Known about the structure:
Blueprint: E1 2-5, E2 9-12, E3 51-55, E4 57-58, E5 64-65, H1 68-76, H2 115-119, E6 150-151, H3 156-159, E7 163-170, E8 173-182, E9 193-196, E10 211-217, H4 226-229, H5 234-237, E11 243-251, H6 252-257, E12 271-277, H7 286-290, E13 309-313, E14 326-330, E15 333-335, E16 344-349, E17 359-363, E18 369-374, E19 377-379, E20 383-387, H8 392-404
Antiparallel strand pairs: 1-2, 2-19, 3-11, 4-5, 6-14, 7-8, 7-10, 8-9, 9-12, 10-11, 11-12, 13-14, 13-17, 15-16, 16-20, 17-18
Amino acid sequence: MRPIRPLFAVRREGSARRGTSPVLAAVGLATVLALTTTACNSGGDAKASGEASASASAAGDGKIKVPDDIRQKLKEHGIDIDKWKNGAWKNWNRDQWLRQADEFINPIIKGLWDPDRMRRANDPDKGVSDNDLSGDQGVTDPTPAPVRARAVAAAYHDNAPTAGKVFFDAPGGTMVCSATVVEDPAHPGKSNLVWTAGHCVHAGKKGGWYRNIAFVPTYNNSGRTEAQLKNATREEVAPYGVWWGDWAQTSQQWIEQGGETGGQGASYDFAVIHVTPEKGSGGKSLEETVGSALPVNFNAPAVSKVAGITATGYPAAAPFDGQKLYQCQDKPGRLSIVRTDPTMYRIGCTMTGGSSGGGWVETGANGKPALVSNTSIGPVSSGWLAGPRLGPVAKGVYESVSKKFAAQ
């Protein structure tokens, strides 16, 4: 995630351990009062909801299948798609960093995400100066007291079956975020949808789509230490397989406003990834494979009526190492970064970078858990997290991905 140092230096809680490259995108927090819906005044269609999308796929014979229009756009950037899987993806030349929604490609590169590469994935947290959070003129509740993150008991699949890690490559190296398996209204009981932060798939206003995006559900399910993982097999690290993103969407607001540090675009820092198994799953969907998926609530109650929110993730910045799953539970409050943007949720939590994108779950009036946000930003010194309120823009992104694969 991106951190915010009170008051306010921000870093991303996204993906880099031991302070390597610039931080990934924003992280969000919650409040105690009514949620606002002032942000968009938009409906649920693609343009109105500010969504941006991307896709690519690989055929069973290993040949990359890319629509002609996307292939032409790639050619305009000087990219030969047929060389992509042989290492051409490592070229992050500014003119070749695909940015627009219809330019994203993510062909499967079998075996790329081996245990060692996953274990070494970084979390680029970075603190910034106070003026990186401009326009904090809306309603913000007092800073919450830190809530100590507690380790989820192994096996993770028994206690947090929808949680996992998103791995991807960025100019700064191999990166990681957290994510959640969510329901797909077009395929009840058979979802292939994953919810994470926008900054875990796209760099925002100064960059483009990240590459080699893959999801590993219940990563390190048995809770091994980093030392023990050095000798672990891929099946032990990823017992439910590696699932590649064949379509990703984030908000257009994130693409246009999001930054490496600060709170820009944080209120719209969410994304949905449609995944497909690297190795065939025998026809099983992601939801069938892990046995669970969370519904998403785009109309959560006023924060004052929420008894508590549970945030889940794999924090990677010190004192954590990114290998184990943690949770924080707290009553939310409000955080406003820009008056014209939706107020964010904020909770006390000591999780650090790497927890970005992890799901925020609240028990609804029906007594069942639902996803209501994701980790986006937090302070440099840790202590709290913030996440976007999922309103019309988020719903538009979610429904668009679902509809795209409805016939499949």
